Recover the amino acids of this structure.
């Protein structure tokens, strides 16, 4: 049973199915792995329930973030073994700085972090940190594409597909998926490798993306796809 069946009504599922939404599109031959905003601001610096985490790191998504870290690590290993490009995004905000834009108006605790924190909220989580040869893109807005050189990099590498991981499902993941869809990339969102602070928003947005913009796939299916990419590259060599 899809994860969203818990929150999407039977009526709505029938409407979308009758209209023909949700047909799998598949992935192409030249993917990249996109790791969106996996920084301590969104994961926190230790595993704890989301409400406790939010008291320390206001943007933290709690235990679900740490579950996703483990799965993203598996995908990173498979992507690097298959010579599939890895692209990270992260924000970098100065308290009171202009790059915060409308974020500062909507998020009352945007610049808070624990006084005892040993890491910066803008740091990518060390367990899945970028490696030499990976691309790290700084962004100020939800989409990985908005105001960044991401498309030029994808064009240069001949990328036709994106495997999307990271956070949050309803925010920067969704915005990036829609923009990637608008550029005609084939996109798969890896279910166990994305997360949100809201249980319902996570599930509803997975349903909606799967219906219209992307394929939502299991992590094991993503791993098998990446391993197949490695085999095709070795065969071509």
């Amino acid at each position: 049973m899809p994860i969203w069946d818990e929150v999407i009504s039977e009526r709505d599922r029938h409407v979308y199915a009758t209209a023909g939404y949700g047909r799998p599109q598949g992935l192409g031959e030249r993917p990249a792995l996109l790791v969106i905003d996996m920084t301590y601001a969104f994961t926190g610096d230790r595993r704890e329930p989301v409400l406790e985490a939010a008291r320390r790191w206001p943007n933290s998504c709690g235990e679900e973030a740490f579950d996703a870290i483990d799965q993203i690590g598996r995908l990173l290993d498979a992507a690097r073994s298959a010579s599939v490009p890895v692209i990270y995004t992260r924000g970098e905000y100065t308290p009171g700085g202009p790059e915060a834009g409308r974020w500062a108006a909507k998020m009352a605790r945007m610049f808070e972090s624990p006084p005892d924190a040993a890491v910066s909220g803008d740091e990518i989580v060390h367990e899945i940190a970028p490696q030499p040869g990976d691309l790290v893109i700084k962004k100020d807005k939800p989409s990985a594409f908005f105001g960044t050189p991401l498309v030029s990099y994808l064009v240069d590498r001949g990328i036709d597909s994106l495997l999307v991981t990271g956070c949050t499902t309803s925010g920067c993941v969704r915005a990036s998926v829609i923009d990637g869809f608008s550029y005609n990339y084939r996109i798969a969102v890896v279910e166990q490798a994305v997360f949100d602070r809201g249980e319902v928003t996570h599930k509803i947005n997975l349903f909606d993306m799967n219906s219209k913009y992307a394929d939502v796939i299991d992590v094991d299916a993503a791993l098998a796809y990446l391993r197949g990419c490695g085999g095709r590259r070795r065969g071509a060599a």
